[in-house]
Amino acid sequence: MRNYIIKRILASILILFCVTFIIYAILRCLPASYVETMAMQLAMAPGAKPYEEWIAQLNASYGLDKGIIAGYFVWLGDFAAGNFGDSWKFTVPVIQKFHDVVWLSFVMGAVAFILELLIAVPLGIIAATRQYSRADYSITAVALIGISLPPFFFATLLKLVFAVKLQWFDVSGLVGRTFAQMSSWEQFMDKAYHLVLPIATLVITSIGALMRHTRTNMLEVLNADYIRTARAKGLSEQRVIYKHAFRNTLIPLVTIIGGSLPGLFAGAQITETLFSIPGIGWTAYQSMIIGDIPFTMFYMTFIAVLTLASNLLTDILYAVVDPRVRIA
Questions:
Q1: Domain final position from 50, 83, 116
Q2: Of 306, 258, 254, which Cα lies nearest the Cα of 280?
Q3: Per DSSP, what are the bridge partners of residue 152?
Q4: CATH classification of the domain holding 226
Q5: pTM over 0.85
Q6: Angle subtended at Cα 135 by Cα 130 and Cα 138, rounded to the nearest 5 degrees
Q7: Signed CA dihedral, 10, 15, 17, 18: sign only
Q8: Would you give the DSSP letter of residue 64?
Q9: Close Cβ partners of 135 (under 8 Å, ≥ 6 residues apart)
């Protein structure tokens, strides 16, 4: 296992190198550029230098006058030394801005993920154990609706019904108008209140796939020979399902659950943007559309590292869930 982990880590470092280079090259080729925007603003000032001179000066200041390969290795050296630079859009150190916004997205993602597991897995088991019943058809219909609804459409629908028609929630934003006058507990509850619709959007649009996977895997296990043997021995149906069948159902689910790790920190760009939630997803989107290379590179590299780590963790968890899995 130790040798396997070392090999995977070395392979992950190589993959990370390739991924970050591709991301850097794409960012350098984007039509949106912070440098061009700033040069245009500076050139419009009375008596200012021409636009072309500002472009050349700013490119030299940010190291964009070098080629893509040379510029990438300059960024890689700074990144390896822990120098992540300053965000061009937010004018603060990248790591500071990241720390300020990532935990809001983590709370949203973690709450949505826990609710997704608590809802989708039991419903998938119920659908499998009551195959072709009304409960199975109802759960399948809900799952298909969740899979089919895109987040932007469902978020807009929730805002229309609960914010515009019923006026139970605000249309957007993280805090209310009287937030500054509230006590600490009231401020906490106010933020939680404004996160209800975004979290509901994340949960409803995510539980469908997990319910379908749980149902399919559970049906496959319930038809296995050892399940019929356990029933023939006189074990109760509850013991057969939750001790023998469900444990083996977890193996494919580990892949889905392990792959959800990056999503806890990546934020939900569409949902956060629609609800004006200043999390990491919304912040990264704002950085990307103006070509904020320092922040975007840090964000994308962070997500790449989490993705590689989650894949390694998933493979290790296979041996924990199923003792039959061994790595030679």
A1: 83
A2: 306
A3: none
A4: 1.10.3720.10
A5: no
A6: 135
A7: positive
A8: T
A9: 126, 127
